Amino acid sequence: MFVSIAVVGLLFASCDDTKKKEAEAKAEAEKMEMEAKAQAEEVEKMAKMEFEKNTIAAVAMGNENFTTLVTALKQAGLAQTFMAEGEYTVFAPTNDAFAKVPQATLDNLMKDENKAKLQNLLKYHVVKGEFMAPAVMKAIKDNNNAYNVTTLAGQNITLMEKDGKVMIKDATGKTATVVMADVDASNGVIHAIDTVIMPKG
Fold it and tell me: What is the pLDDT of residues 34-87, one digit of tens each?
């Protein structure tokens, strides 16, 4: 009888010990899982910060040649668009390009009631997808020096080459020249142009 009780006691003690070890192992696994999750979240957060720091909008904001463009993007409510994920090629007018636009026209576009017009104008400078200069030059060559591209505004621009430089013909027949190519961003590329291109209407 005493032997039986002793054996039962040992079995209970062994069972309790096993449960305790299992609980400790589970707690340790949960702790490691939480730490791994926290590390992953931190890596994701850092990656997101790095991405946002190098977006088209952020690069433009950090370049003194694009202050008018940045003001226009903010007024049009498009700054966030170019801080988000995606791939865009932006033919970005410099401050000098905007200076060629009559001040009255620019002031009018910046009015709240003309937000849709301003959005359309800015979207006319953007093509979906990332096209670096070598790819653009190849496409121009493959299309007999007249490569038609549809912009985010839904209207076409024509890319051409002259004297080794990329030229853009807009819907009105006027041209702009790429003066600085391949400004890389985390969500696309910027090509600076010397003239604001105009859509129809």
Answer: 777 766 565 555 545 554 678 999 999 999 999 999 999 999 999 888 888 889
Neighbours of 62 (CB within 10 A): 11
Q: pTM of this prediction?
A: 0.74
> What would the two tokens of residue 10 be?
């040992």
Answer yes or no: are the C-beta atoms of 33 and 40 closer than 8 Å. Answer: no
114 secondary structure, DSSP code: G
Which pairs count as long-range contacts for 57-62, CB under 8 Å and 24+ apart, including other chains?
57/81, 57/82, 57/83, 58/83, 58/185, 59/183, 59/185, 59/190, 60/92, 60/190
- CB distance 179 to 94 below 8 Å: yes
Per the CB < 8 A criterion, the answer to whether 60 and 69 are in contact is yes
Place of tokens 């957060």: 45
Helix (H, G, I), strand (E, B) or coil at 140: helix
- The answer to whether 74 and 82 are in contact (CB under 8 A) is no
Q: How many CB atoms lie within 10 A of CB 84?
A: 13
Q: For residues 159 and 44, what is the distance between their CA atoms, to the nearest angstrom?
A: 38
- Coil, strand or helix: which one is 80? coil
Tokens of 5: 């009780």
DSSP state, 6?
A: H
The answer to whether the beta carbons of residues 125 and 198 sit under 8 Å apart is no
- The answer to whether residues 176 and 196 touch, using CB atoms and an 8 Å cutoff, is yes
pLDDT tens, 160-200? 999 999 999 999 999 999 999 999 999 999 999 999 999 98
